[in-house]
Amino acid sequence: MFLTWRAVAVALAGCIALLVAPGWVTFVLWLVLTLLVIAMDVALAPATGRLVWTRPDIRTVRQGEVTTAELLVTNTGRRRMRAVVRDAWQPSAGAQRDRHRVVIPGGERRRISTTLIPTRRGDRLTPGVAVRSLGPLGVAGRQRSVDVPGHVRALPPFRSRKHLPSRLARLREIDGRAAVMIRGQGTEFDSLREYVIGDDVRSIDWRATARRSQVVVRTWRPERDRRVLLVLDASRTSAARIGDEPRLDAAMDAALLLGALASRAGDRVDLLVHDRRILGRVQGASRTDLLPRLVDVMAPIEPSLVEADWPLVAAEVRSRLTRRALVVLLTTIDAATADTGLIAAASALALRHTVLIASVTDPELAAMAQRRGDRAGVYDAAAAIRSRSDAGTVTDWLGVAGVGVVTGTPEELPPALADRYLALKAAGRL
Prior knowledge:
This protein is an alpha/beta fold. The protein has eleven helices and 21 strands. The protein folds into three domains: 1-155, Immunoglobulins (Immunoglobulin-like, Sandwich), CATH 2.60.40.10; 159-164 and 226-427, von Willebrand factor, type A domain (Rossmann fold); 187-222, no CATH class. The strands form six sheets. A six-stranded mixed sheet has the order 18-17-14-19-20-21, with helices on both faces. β19, α8 (342-350) and β20 form a beta-alpha-beta unit. The longest helix is centred in the C-terminal third of the chain and has 26 residues, at 375-400.
């Protein structure tokens, strides 16, 4: 049972009666009358148990985009029902208006739509609905909660998609659609052309030159169908918040941009998500199916407050890659990295593969390093400078082992990582 504002109005009317004719008799009559009106309204309210609920499947949606959650309710009784329905989505689902007034004649069905704008990535849930059936006087009614579970999967927003067209234009230049003649390890023969001043003499094709009257050189293009393995760290360090989101979300954004670019380049892209165990993987996806599978695997992943098991990751990479590939470790480089096994694992992988580490940096550190106004500011600046120095030391160690490092803020890292991939592609180092 529930009461409406009209029940309050009935109570106030009784107070007026007490002012006109004060006494116990007036009070008892007013109390009995009020309770009788409420009881009659509840009794005459249609039973909420005669409602049958159906929730159609909801498609996935990107975080921050708009979708609609629909609810079908059928009145199996004969009486017309005035009801208020609350579709109880969790707050991060971003329900714009979750209370709906509906009128359902007997034997008919109504569709209830709730607009959702998810504010967080992952599966946004609703345990059920709460329904209130009003009596004919609108003073009181019946209330019931019904289990009608539902969920909508909010996918990573992929904000760095805006950088994809410019990187694809550069890829077309490297790929030979604009004439780029390169020579190096891991490149494929493209065509022959006449020698011009400045060409590498090592690219001269002497047999072809002997058959012609001019010197001929070979042109090369980057190999296609190379392997790119994205390793996403979802351990303790990925839970640190940068701005309004965890570091993990920024790493996902960088992984999506690189995955989209590499698949357009004809490379095979795989994904591995881990903390102390393997949380998810994408393997053998086609070019058209890659991005949907990447975002679907990434969507429910949440940071875990445990240390990453880097020896496990190294063993998993070695078991999955039988030939040379580009391995991108999306993790954090800080003072604690030396103790987690990351350096040893990356160094071991670099003996056989091209290894890059992509690390998201906090722009707040740069602001902290400039604070000198008071004692607290000086301590903040010292801590920020020490943190950057430790990260620089780890980067130097990784460089000695042949591991490349790409760092940047959440906005800078995705294009920086894509540029490093293109540089490796142009140099024939994949």
